[in-house]
Structure formats: structure tokens, C-alpha cells
Amino acid sequence: RPTDLDERSLKRLASQDSASAVAAATVTGVRLESGEIIRARKVVITTGTFLGGEIHIGLKAFPSGRKGEAASTGLSKSLKDAGFRLGRMKTGTPPRLAGSTIDFSRMPKQLGDMPVTPFSFVHDSVPYANDQVACYQTHTTPAVHKVIEANFDQSIHIRETVRGPRYCPSLESKIKRFSEKDSHVIWLEPEGLPEHTDVVYPNGISNTMPEDIQLKFLRLIPGLENVTMTQPGYGVEYDHIDPRELKRTLETKRVTGLYMAGQINGTTGYEEAAAQGILAGANAGLAAGHDKAPDRAGETPQLVLDRSDGYLGVLIDDLITRGVEEPYRVFTARSEYRLSSRADNADIRLTRRAAALGLIRDTSRLARLDAVEADMAQAQALLSQVVHLPHEWEAKLGGDRRVGRNGARTSALDMIQKGFLAEDMSADSRQPENIAPELMPKARKCTGGPRISDIVPGWADVPLNIRRRVATEAMYHGYLRQQQLEANTFKREESLRLPVDIDYSQIRVLSREEVDRLSRVRPDTLGAARRIGGITPGGMLALLKHVRRAADA
Length: 553
Fold this sequence. Notes:
Layout: H1 7-15, E1 25-26, E2 29-31, E3 37-39, E4 43-45, E5 54-57, E6 60-63, H2 74-81, E7 86-93, E8 96-98, E9 109-110, E10 135-139, H3 142-149, H4 171-177, E11 185-190, E12 199-203, H5 211-218, E13 229-231, E14 234-241, E15 255-256, E16 258-260, H6 270-292, H7 311-322, H8 346-356, H9 363-385, E17 387-388, H10 390-397, E18 410-411, H11 412-417, H12 440-446, H13 452-455, H14 464-475, H15 477-494, H16 512-521, H17 526-530, H18 537-552
Helix pairs in contact: 3-5, 8-9, 9-14
């Protein structure tokens, strides 16, 4: 049980509308299956697929959250008793293969990136950078599809009453939904270094067929004719809550001090779960520290990200305003600010915010960030110092490139912004990488011509990561300026807070449907209210007037 509550409290919670402005209970700890109680002021639940988990292999079904590990059933009951609305979702995993039984010689090899890019800005490289393990590509065949189609009735997981991930569907779903295709790509990914494991993960063929059918179709795949299956693929169904019952901190509205992260909130994917874990854990820690402080004056510090701050802000906003009907994944297309929410500038966007909250205490992190910004400023100055007239640029660019006829002197930085110069984005390729689709015409215009280092003295001496970042910022310059204006407008709306105790039924202009939706979600800002589906412009105007009248009263 996530909360140590008496039966009276549980009944009060169960009868409480989730839209209530004030939580009806406060978490006091966790009761283990053994009956032992661990006292805690803050609790974070990260159950993954274990919450009411049930594994499916063919027509067999048994309680489990992962092969060989027990499901959590008591926790689902405790959440229901507390009044949380639970839904059901499903996902799956592919079979695991013995690498020693695979004929890799018949498959295209996929090498890792060189130079490698660490996940953290703290590091310049990664272990085994020069000893990477290759992946290999193969594919399904019409014979594979025929075997699976003939055995659709042998899997209970295919039923449509429980929603699975749309963007990484099972092999059965792909064969059903894309019947016109006679082949689907499979990536064979070693699960570790060869001296540590022989297991290979076949990405792209998660399925829930009976074990004998799985082995049969595996051996119809090119290169897998003699493969040994070390573990069958399987599907798993699990419980999740309605994420509209959460605050932006991932604390629940029903129970103070109770936080949730990962698949329990209706998401799928490792990165989505990890990001929520960071946010929920940070806020639980900040709140616990504030509770224990001798002087608890002022508001509890919080890590709250909005849509313009990064993809985690988009994920949280989508969850708490729209809810989920299928496992939720983050894509660049979900963000209105994707040009500024890049991996290469995450340190500039977020490091100082984390430090201000005490989440980063290593002063070397901030010193490193200061050094990066200083290096970027110097590199931009280097580009700004190289200035030529249009005909001079045309001579340097070569060919029939027309820079302009206005006679104005133009810097190398301007030439990057206009698409005439580009940075060589990788050590072994002259093709720009990681460029937004809307910028591809500009990138193609640069391909094949002189690079920045051919024209700007000293540019080759600038560290590669700094060159990349400065060139990217310059290439996106016009788009980023427009996006910043949109972000400023967005933040003005987000700054208009909505009272937590607002009674939407008293705003007469609102329709019954709008009252129901607003009461269910309880948006905390005007911007969040606008993003709730079904709220009309007239309803938004009425809400704005109501809030302003209340503020003036």
C-alpha cells in the first residue's frame, strides 16, 4: 500500500472527486507485502509494468511484471481504494537470441557513431569508444508473415480492448496494419560486450506467439536459419493511473506527498520513464528538505518545466492536461519549440536552473558551463571578424553561387545564417547531421562547397563540439528568433495562474462539457486550460474574465 491510511480515510478518498482542489490525505509511509511499514514523508511510485502485471505468451497468461519476477497486485488495490482511476495498457518484448548461432556474414553491419557523443556534458568521451560492438540488419520475409497470420488465434495479447504502443508495435500488429508490406526491418543488437554476454536483442520483432511458433518464424529470417532462442518474446499488460490526477511536480492531487513516475503515468519508453523519475525524485526531495527545514517560510521549492523549457516539459504538460488513451511517447513533433530544445544546448538551458534549486552542487559543473559559453562567444567573434563584399564571397565559394548584389559587406557568421557556409558536422563525413527538415534545403546548398575552416583562419583550432554548437545556432538563427517570440507569448499565458479552488460551475458561459473537463484536469495556468481538448475560445475568454474579476475583488 502506498499510504498508511485507516479505512475512514480510504472511504473519504474513494468518494472524493479527483478534481478536488485540496488533497484529502497525506502520505505517511509504505506498507510492504510482509506487513512491515516504512515511514516516509514523501513516496515516489515507479512500478513500470509490474502494477497488476500479467505476462502473455501465446494463450498462456500469468501474473508477472517481467519474466521471472512477481507482479504487484496489492498496490493496485490500494490505489483503487484511495480513489485513483486505473486504466490498462500493454507492451511487449522480443525473444532473445544466442549470438553464436547467428550468421552475421549475410547481414549489413551498422557501426556506432564516430566520434562518439557522451550522454553527459561532464564527459568528453565514453569507455570503449574505439572498441564498439556492431549491430546488424536483417528483415522478415513473406514466409514469416504467413506463419504469424496463420496463428493469430494463438495469442490472447492481440485483442484490441487494451491499447498497446502505436509507435513501436508488435510484429503481429505490423503484419495486421501494414498487410501490403512483405518485409519489416530487424536490428540485431548485442546486449553487451562479447566477453560478457552472447545474448542478442532482435529489435523490431516483439511478439506474443507461442514459443514453438516464435522459433519457427525466427528460423525463416535471413541469417537466423540455425538460431537458438534463449528466451521467448512475450507481452505484458499492466495498470496505470489517469495522469490528469497529477500536478506538474508529478505529485498526486489526491494524496499529498505521493509522487508517481514512469509507466504508471501512462507513458512508455526508457527515456520517458527516466526523465519522470528525475523530476518526481527531485520534487519529492525538495519538498522533504523544505518540510525538515527549521524555518519553513515561503513556498516549497519545485522543479517545474513548461513546454518551452524542453521535451520533459512537453511530456508533463501533455499528460496532465490531455491524459492518455495509449502508451505515450515523446517525439520532436510534439514540441512547438523543438529547434531550441536540442540535445546540444541542454546544459545552457537547464544546468543553472538545477543549480539554483540545489540539485547540482558540484561547482565544477558550473565552471565548465561558463567555459563553454565563453568558448562559444569567442568562436562567434572569430566568425564575425571575417568580412567580405558579395563578389569576394562569390570568388571564395566558387562555382556560380550568387551571394547578393546589394554591395553590403557580410561576415562569415552571416554567411552561415544565410546557408552559404556549413560546419563539417562529423569527423568522417561532409554531410550535415541532425538538421531539422525545414533547414535541409539550406543544408544541401552548403554541401559540396568550402567549409568554414577553409575560409576562417583559426576555426580549425576551435574544439569540435564548440564549432558544432556555434554553427548550429547560426544556421537556426532566424527560426530561433521567431520561436523565442512565440515562447515569450506562451510564458505570459503560463504566468497567469488559476486559483486551485476555482468553481467552474459558477462561470455561466462555460458549457457543461467545458465545466466537466476543467474540473477533471484542474489546470494550474491559463495556458494549460487552453490546451485541454474541447475548451472553446469563448470558454477561454470567460475563464480569463472570471480570473481577472476575482483578482480585482
